Amino acid sequence: MAKAKKVRSWAEPFKIKVVEPIKMLTVKEREKAAKEAGYNTFLLRSEDVYIDLLTDSGTNAMSDNQWAGMMLGDEAYAGSRNFYHLWDNVNKIYGMPYFVPTHQGRAAEHMISKILIKPGDYVPGNMYFTTTRLHQEMAGATFVDVIIDEAHTPEADHPFKGNIDLKKLAKLVKEVGAEKIAYISMAGPVNMAGGQPFSMKNLEKVHEFAQKHKIRLWMDATRAVENAYFIKLRERGYSKKSIGDILLQMMSHFEGIWVSAKKDLMVNIGGILATKDERVFEEARNMVVVYEGLHTYGGLAGRDLEAMARGMEEMIQFDTIKARVGQVEYFGNKLIDLGIPIVRPVGGHAVFLDAKKFLPHIPQDEFPAQTLAAEIYIDSGVRGMERGIVSAGRDPKTGDHRHPKLELVRLTLPRRVYTQSHIDVAVESIAEVWDKRKSIKGMKMIYEPKYLRFFQGRFARLK
After folding, report:
1. Which of 28, 266, 290, 361 is deepest in the core (most CB within 10 A)?
2. Is residue 370 exposed (0-12), middle (13-18) or buried (19+ Cβ within 10 Å)?
3. pLDDT in tens, 322-381
4. What residues are annotated to the active site?
5. Burial, 156: exposed, middle or buried (Cβ in 10 Å; 0-12, 13-18, 19+)?
6. Axis-axis angle for helices 166-176, 200-213 (nearest 10)
7. Which domains does the chain carry?
């Protein structure tokens, strides 16, 4: 019998050159901070957080090469050389000939929704994302979830839970007509499903369907590099292909993309709207001047554009994405070993705790995920965020809470920021809360903003 190959330890492909001190408040101080924030982790002061796993959006550590590029910012109002460097890379790395920069991905979502959607349209997608759906709804569309059923089951161990269900998609098109579909919205990996990717095979089938019915296919490519990495690892025929080649193959199936550069590109600010459709480009280029700034800066400084261009080159390096996803996998496997319920398989950017199974005694209308995120912060100063009934918001027609099948707490790892020791601290804190879970009570909402209530809503503990 052949001897099993020993698995060697791996290390992050970088050295730490600059550090930022952090501090841990006492339990009493954290209790006070949580209460003052209305038990909403978004409303905590950053200085009161010990390990910040709220998001990977703009919280990443830039490389020395990116920081060097910041010193080469061409701050001309029009025609910055950094804009043209970024445009070249959008064409080369994403395969999109036309693009406009934006201050972040949300602005690109807004513009594409206004350009492509007419009131009464439908937008099918592989699960909603909060800001994307809101922009679609505000433009007059109805979002329809056409993701495979496994995506709504945390314990389902499907390698591509981000896949679109072609039967669901076909049913919608048959019911409303292809002319009422503004575009198919595909994201990968799917954030709200636990960072789950789609397969290239599924993408090819969706593209074929879209071509047949003359429907546009667009992608939220914010974390597309993570999706490419999972295809390389999990899909037959891709193990020897480079991340860059897989990314380009993915992009070949889309008419256009929007990107929050604050994720894959490892910068602190920035976004992209890119397309192969010259008409859409012309509309976006005109619109960006109204909402963001001239089409050659899009609400950003020249130095930001240069950092984006260089980050785009770094993001497709295999060692970079392997270490990024590897940290998340390390985190998830530690929790699995302790019997703590999380979304499986472990996703690309975050570990998602299954709050329904973690706190089964708390009904969804008492916000179990919001409660769990607050309890973890109070225990250790580790900040995560709710991804459940609060994030789902209210049905715009009935005004009732939407009740998603998934009630999750997202613990997101910023790129190149934390070590495995930080992860170990987070694991131990979650385990501590797990041990006392039966004594935890739910919450009530005491302030609810009109839009995206998970950002600013406030809560109080139930007695």
Report:
1. 266
2. buried
3. 999 999 999 999 999 999 999 999 999 999 999 999 999 999 999 999 999 999 999 999
4. 77, 129-130, 220, 263, 387, 454
5. middle
6. 20
7. 27-56+318-461 (3.90.1150.10), 65-315 (3.40.640.10)
